[in-house]
């Protein structure tokens, strides 16, 4: 799961760089860069955070099962 989280962070960073540096002008570009992309970026960040939370829960439950079986 850590690998998936790292990949999400890497992809988000790459897309952020491309979104900021793309040669695109006009109202659609402005809307995308100032409104739409930040929303997508936040959604990707939340996915990564949620995966980290799930990882913590799974690891905790795994340890509880190990302790219960001991």
Structure explained in plain terms:
The protein has 70 residues and is mostly helical. It has one domain (2-69). It contains two helices and no strands. The chain has helices spanning 2-21, 27-69. The longest helix has 43 residues, at 27-69. It is rod-shaped. The chain starts with a helix and ends with a helix.
Briefly say what this structure is.
90% of the residues lie in helices and 0% in strands.
Cα Rg: 18 Å
Question: Helical region count?
Answer: 2
What is the tally of beta strands?
A: 0
Distance between the termini: 26 Å
Indicate the percent of residues in helices.
over 70%
In the predicted model, the low-confidence regions spanning at least 5 consecutive residues are none
- Overall pLDDT: 95
Can you lay out the helices and strands and say which pair or pack?
Blueprint: H1 2-21, H2 27-69
Question: What features would you highlight for this structure?
Answer:
mainly alpha
